[in-house]
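Tutorial handout. Part one gives the primary structure; part two gives the three-dimensional structure as tokens.
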Amino acid sequence: MAANEVICPICKTKAQPLDKIGDADGFECATHERFRVVGSVFATDLRDAPREKWEAALKKAKERQPGEWAPTITTYYFD
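Part two.
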């Protein structure tokens, strides 16, 4: 994997990193487009949540942040 590639936490495929904002890591995935994930998600068991829960969290982030260039997934968006 090239130095500028990361793994999408949702589908586990190669992604491009986005600039970090605060404690949120950014990803640009061919499947899930652009999004960010706050550090507290990765610091908990949520990082191992099934893909369906990740996709639901991304959907909530997009709904609650309409028009955002890269919506941010927080722990609150996981059921």
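Part three, for discussion. Residues 6-77 form one domain. The radius of gyration is 11 Å.
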